[in-house]
Amino acid sequence: QQQVKQSPQSLIVQKGGISIINCAYENTAFDYFPWYQQFPGKGPALLIAIRPDVSEKKEGRFTISFNKSAKQFSLHIMDSQPGDSATYFCAASMEGDSNYQLIWGAGTKLIIKP
Amino acid sequence: GAGVSQSPSNKVTEKGKDVELRCDPISGHTALYWYRQRLGQGLEFLIYFQGNSAPDKSGLPSDRFSAERTGESVSTLTIQRTQQEDSAVYLCASSLSGSDTQYFGPGTRLTVL
């Protein structure tokens, strides 16, 4: 029940296309869903996050779509660029519970072809 | 601006030797995490420190692995009698609390020959 399942494991998208990465969770107590971006040789860094009171959050070319009833959330990258090539991790937690950790997805390696 | 720092950045050791990896978290962050990331793989949780609470050691793969943290400052991850399968990048992260945004260091790349 604590797992976050992420798919696909890898993704190749043409420059200018839309990249979509999906995550699913079981624990309905989760109330915070961040996405992290990791470039080779670097640690992951927070990209965008959403709480379940909204169904969508957009920051520039990056959008999180959240479906509470389906217990799924996804990251959409519009107009994908070669610089977006990285590994993306979704995660979930119960925000406000200081003893509760982020539960991580397995990651998606995204390659944007020029 | 001081982020999370880790040292050394690279460590090459011989099988059977002990290694010690260091993490300096962001000042004021009560939560600190260690993760292992094998080449091309996801984040493998190792250990979690939250303030003065007992650490969550549930991710440590064997008794060769241990970690310490003094108060809300530096943490060290120790691997005794290293094995080749210990080769990986060891990432440290800190956050204001357990559920908050985690800020990662650059990692220590450990190679066991």
Structural class of chain A: mainly beta
Largest interface: A-B, 26 and 27 residues
* SS-based class of chain B: mainly beta
End-to-end separation of chain B: 36 Å
Mean pLDDT of chain A: 93
Low-confidence regions of chain B: none
- Total strands of chain B: the figure is 10
Order of helices and strands of chain B: EEEEEEEEEE
The portion of residues forming beta strands of chain A comes to over 45%
> Helical segment tally of chain A?
0
As a whole number of angstroms, the C-alpha radius of gyration of chain B is 13 Å
- Overall helicity of chain B: under 10%
Mean pLDDT of chain B: 93
Structure described in brief:
Chain A is an all-beta fold and 114 residues long. Chain A contains no helices and 11 strands. In chain A, strands 2, 4, 5, 9, 10 and 11 form a 6-stranded mixed β-sheet that branches. A 5-stranded antiparallel β-sheet of chain A has the order 1-3-8-7-6, with no helix packed on it.
Describe the protein's architecture and organization:
The complex is a heterodimer of chains A (114) and B (113). In chain A, strand 4 and strand 5 form a beta hairpin. Chain A is mainly beta. In chain A, strands 2, 4, 5, 9, 10 and 11 form a 6-stranded mixed beta sheet that branches. Chain A is globular and about 40 Å long. Chain A is built from no helices and 11 strands. The model of chain A has no long low-confidence stretch (mean pLDDT 93). Chain B has strands at 5-7, 10-13, 19-24, 31-37, 44-50, 65-69, 75-79, 88-95, 103-104, 108-112. In chain B, 0% of the residues lie in helices and 46% in strands. With 113 residues, chain B is mainly β.
